[in-house]
Amino acid sequence: MDILTFDQAGDLLDELAEEFPPEFYEDLNGGISLLPEALPDPDFPPGEMYILGEYRNDMMGRYINLYYGSFAALAQEEDWTVEDWKRELHDTLAHEFTHHIEGRAGERGLERNDEQFIEEFRAGRGE
Description:
This protein is of the alpha+beta class. The protein has helices at 6-17, 68-78, 82-105, 109-124; strands spanning 31-35, 53-58, 61-67. It is globular and about 35 Å long.
């Protein structure tokens, strides 16, 4: 198991972010931030579901937050390797960029997919 430190995860995120084309960053005036906290999903029992990232479009602008603590909690639960960290950070960043690009285009496809995923997850738990 490899639990990356906050700084190691930040360095890895910086490397991964450079792989995305410059067009993805248009109007992303708040950039990408790695925040130290874990963000448990308030709709689930504690420790069951974590929010890894969020695309925000509010009075502060358009930006992406990723939550180091959420990644670290899952890494510990699932015995992640460094490759798992890379994949999860990349996939989460790509997911949030998709929200950004769709938001700029007035689309909500991924948002609807996210809602369906949560509904199916709950159904699988008997809720």
